[in-house]
Predict the structure.
Amino acid sequence: MALFSTARFVASAHELHELPPDFGAEVAFAGRSNAGKSSALNALTQRKRLAFVSKTPGRTQTINFFECDGNRRLVDLPGYGYAAVPQKERAHWGKLISAYLQNRRSLRGLVLIVDARHPLTPLDRQLLEWHAASGQPVLVLLTKADKLTRGDAAKHLAAANALLPELHPAATAQLFSAVAGTGQRSAYATVAAWLTSPEGAAAPPSSGPGNKKPPVKGE
């Protein structure tokens, strides 16, 4: 996992004008609050605290950028779906995430974090359906797989794979555990391939943020 071993925090953005320059290649991580997004990022980079892990859902309130080298980045998007976050802030997150996903030229793929113990939520499905128009690949990581029996984990994976073609034709799912190491090598291989593909070597500057309807309501 050498590509991610040097990952370091480089920027946070709470507003669109705070996004770092749009070049190279990025892979974004999204998911419902408390689904294990920060733990997945830490596991893939083999860093204990690259992304802050909190027991309080909704802790990530900005888009956080982690640079792997000069042209490749991992991006941690704010978690969605946590009701305790004020409605005004949830609406702001939705608009920020929407504009980032629709206009970021360096974006090469999306990793959607879903708790393996639960089905895809309406907000997960909404994000997948909306993002399908981009044609970009999506990897759905069914996290916390270590908390399920092998049989239950297989059933949840089969259910996700049966549903995904209806929501996003370029989405695939796999089991993942930041604790037991399940699926870490295959997830790393997928994300690394997105970041190192020929088209990920460079990208023209963004023409600017859009004002389209956000795909994920913070409810």
